[in-house]
Specification:
alpha+beta; 3 strands; about 120 residues; globular
Length: about 120
């Protein structure tokens, strides 16, 4: 069960809020599946299509990194996701407050800030 499923407001383990910083969207490569693109058609327009993702013959869409971007194609200047309600499965599974989350926060200079 993802943090979002446990708490629809976005608060994950230990009080970390997955809707307020965008650190993971600026640190890790992000690829969406073809089924994600069916749910959110903007993926097909704003991301790079990869026809043989991981050598499996599957279609994927690279959301980050992209040329001339410093984060996911849908991360706004306010560090909020522009497609949060229809975001890809990989984003839904990313656990707020996890070791990866804390590492991403540290890499972008916000540390392990918790929701107050």
């Amino acid at each position: 069960m993802s943090a979002k499923e446990r708490n629809p407001e976005g608060e994950g383990s230990e009080g970390f809020d997955c809707t307020d910083c965008g650190a993971c969207c600026r640190c890790y490569p992000i690829f969406a599946s073809a089924s994600d693109a069916e749910r959110e058609p903007l993926l097909k327009e704003r991301c790079v299509r990869v026809d043989d993702f991981l050598g499996k013959g599957e279609v994927a869409y690279r959301m980050y990194p992209l040329a001339h971007t410093e984060g996911c194609a849908f991360l706004g200047e306010n560090q909020l996701c522009g497609i949060y309600a229809s975001r890809p499965e990989v984003c839904r599974r990313f656990e707020s407050g996890s070791e990866q989350c804390i590492r991403a926060r540290e890499r972008v200079g916000i540390g392990a800030r918790r929701r107050s």
